[in-house]
Structure formats: structure tokens, C-alpha cells
């Protein structure tokens, strides 16, 4: 009798063990990917990413999930990019200019005055030139999941009106701490002053800087209009940003999961563009309602300076790169 009980207990434990293994196998089959970005909850990127997560879960039957981490919860851009390169299961939005060290030519996509509208700029992502850059990105340890997310048109909010590059002589403009943004504002005629976005409002109030550039929703959201009242429509950058992961992690995903992320990612890019355009229009009206004076700007003199000065600032670029990419976009 004792022997029979022993065998029954042993059999039960074995079945329980098999069940645990089976459940573990199911749990392991589901892949969670963290999506990191610096944008705040409720901003277009945040709204678009959360909608993307729902699409991915539905398309994969719950076997592939995205978890949003807004407001730099996982660290700054450089830190998160390194996490991705070393194989962490995450995707992050970044700037093409952040590839300046690993794939220098790709940084040209953040150069000022390459395009006058997004439809033109998006043509570059179908070019042979961009396909060549993608291979270099993969060799550097990254994979571009979504290359073509519209981020916004960058404008200039300043203490005094700006109509020409000469109006910016000696004018201190806040920029993010990036070689491309420093070079862009310098090429436009101003004095670039790198600092974090969180320091801009008090710096404007104290006269440490005279202006700030960013897409309109950011300019309105930061309440900078309370201190400086001139919005100059310089449209110096039509910013398109990539969502990037690590090449090692990407290769661990099944072809089916790669396809889901790529296809739903393009739907997300379309959604984000719509959200950005709607928010930009709304922010322009809000700025006007707040008493900001809006100035149309002849961008031709700024464009001429950019075409001359930007290539000089990046000697590591291929010969004629700025003009080559400009031709792809504007032909």
C-alpha cells in the first residue's frame, strides 16, 4: 500500500513538474520590449507609442508586447542607446545626429534646411544612399526599426524679431547639447548656448539666453512665451527621427515578430505624423492667443548660409554629402 502511494505521489510530482515546464515555456514565448523616449505623457510620441503597443499585441496574439517608458524613465538617450546595443530588449526614439560617432554621414539628416516639407524629406528613406547607411548602422550594433517618424518643424522663439541672419548676430539661442544643433544655430548667425530644456525658462527670465528653438508644441508646453514674445517661422529643421533597437536583439526575434514590428511601426509613423501636425496647428493658435507675435521669415538667406557652413563643421562627412542628400530630397 505504501509502495502504491509512493508511486502515485511520484507520478503526481512528475506531472506537476511537466506542467510547470509547459507554463514556463508559454511565459518564455511572450516577448516584452520596452520602448523608451524622453517625451512626456500625453505628447504625440507618447500617444502614438501607446497606440502602437495595442496594435502589436493584437497582431501577435499577445505573444509580443510593447511597454512604454516616457519621460526618460530608463535614462538619457546615450545611456538607452548603449543598453540597446548591448542586447537589451528595448526600442528607443533618437536623433539621426546621435549617430555622428558611429555612422557620421547619417547625421546629415538632422542638418538645417535640407527640406522645405516632410513629403520631400521622407523620400530619402527610399534611396540607395539610405540603404547603404542602414547597413553601416547594423555593423555598428544597431537596427533601425522605424526610420521615418515625423517629429516636427523647428522654429525660433526669441526676445526680438528675427528676419535675417544679421538679426541673430550676438543673440544667444539655447540648443540641445549636440554638435549638429550647435552647428545649425551658428550657421544661422546666432550664438548657440547648449543647456537642458529644463533650464531654459529661468535662463530666458534672467537674460542668460535670448531665445530657444524647438517644434511649436514644445515651445508652448515649456511656457517660454511668458518671457519672450516673438515667434520667427524659420522652419530650420524638418525633424524626422528613427526608432532604434540593438542588432543583436533584433536578430533574436523571429521573422514573424520582425514583420509585425516593422508593419505596425509604419502605421504608428503615420499616426504620429497626424498627431504632430494637429498639435502643431493647435500650439500656433495657443501661442498667438498668449500674445506672441508671429513673424513670417524669408528662409533663403538662412538656407544659403547652412549650405556653406554645415559641411565645414563636419569634416568627417563624405565629400559633397550635404548637397547629395539635398538633391535626393528636393529633386
TrEMBL record:
<keyword id="KW-0732">Signal</keyword>
<feature type="signal peptide">
    <location>
        <begin position="1"/>
        <end position="29"/>
    </location>
</feature>
<dbReference type="InterPro" id="IPR038404">
    <property type="entry name" value="TRAP_DctP_sf"/>
</dbReference>
<dbReference type="InterPro" id="IPR018389">
    <property type="entry name" value="DctP_fam"/>
</dbReference>
<protein>
    <submittedName>
        <fullName>C4-dicarboxylate TRAP transporter substrate-binding protein</fullName>
    </submittedName>
</protein>
<keyword id="KW-0813">Transport</keyword>
<dbReference type="InterPro" id="IPR004682">
    <property type="entry name" value="TRAP_DctP"/>
</dbReference>
<dbReference type="Pfam" id="PF03480">
    <property type="entry name" value="DctP"/>
</dbReference>
<comment type="similarity">
    <text>Belongs to the bacterial solute-binding protein 7 family.</text>
</comment>
Amino acid at each position: 500500500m505504501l509502495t502504491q502511494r509512493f508511486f502515485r505521489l511520484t507520478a503526481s510530482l512528475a506531472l506537476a513538474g511537466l506542467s510547470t515546464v509547459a507554463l514556463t515555456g508559454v511565459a518564455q514565448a511572450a516577448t516584452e520590449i520596452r520602448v523608451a523616449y524622453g517625451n512626456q505623457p500625453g505628447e504625440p510620441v507618447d500617444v502614438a507609442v501607446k497606440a502602437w503597443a495595442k496594435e502589436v499585441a493584437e497582431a501577435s496574439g499577445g505573444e509580443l508586447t510593447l511597454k512604454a517608458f516616457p519621460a526618460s524613465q530608463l535614462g538619457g538617450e546615450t545611456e538607452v542607446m548603449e543598453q540597446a546595443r548591448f542586447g537589451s530588449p528595448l526600442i528607443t526614439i533618437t536623433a539621426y545626429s546621435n549617430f555622428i560617432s558611429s555612422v557620421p554621414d547619417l547625421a546629415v539628416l538632422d542638418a538645417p534646411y535640407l527640406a522645405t516639407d516632410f513629403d520631400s524629406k521622407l523620400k530619402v528613406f527610399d534611396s540607395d544612399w539610405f540603404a547603404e547607411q542602414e547597413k553601416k548602422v547594423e555593423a555598428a550594433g544597431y537596427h533601425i526599426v522605424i526610420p521615418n517618424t515625423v517629429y516636427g518643424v523647428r522654429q525660433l522663439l526669441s526676445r526680438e524679431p528675427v528676419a535675417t541672419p544679421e538679426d541673430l548676430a550676438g543673440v544667444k539661442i539655447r540648443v540641445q547639447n549636440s554638435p549638429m544643433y550647435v552647428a545649425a544655430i551658428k550657421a544661422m548667425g546666432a550664438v548657440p548656448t547648449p543647456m537642458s530644456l529644463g533650464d531654459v525658462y529661468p535662463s530666458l527670465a534672467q537674460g542668460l539666453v535670448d531665445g530657444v528653438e524647438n517644434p511649436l508644441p514644445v515651445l508652448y508646453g515649456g511656457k517660454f512665451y511668458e518671457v519672450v514674445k516673438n515667434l520667427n517661422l524659420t522652419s530650420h529643421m524638418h525633424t524626422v527621427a528613427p526608432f532604434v533597437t540593438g542588432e543583436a536583439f533584433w536578430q533574436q526575434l523571429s521573422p514573424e515578430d520582425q514583420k509585425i514590428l516593422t508593419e505596425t511601426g509604419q502605421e504608428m509613423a503615420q499616426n504620429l505624423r497626424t498627431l504632430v501636425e494637429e498639435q502643431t496647428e493647435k500650439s500656433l493658435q495657443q501661442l498667438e492667443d498668449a500674445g506672441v507675435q508671429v513673424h513670417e521669415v524669408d528662409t533663403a538667406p538662412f538656407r544659403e548660409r547652412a549650405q556653406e557652413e554645415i559641411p565645414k563643421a563636419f569634416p568627417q562627412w563624405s565629400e559633397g554629402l550635404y548637397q547629395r542628400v539635398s538633391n535626393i530630397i528636393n529633386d
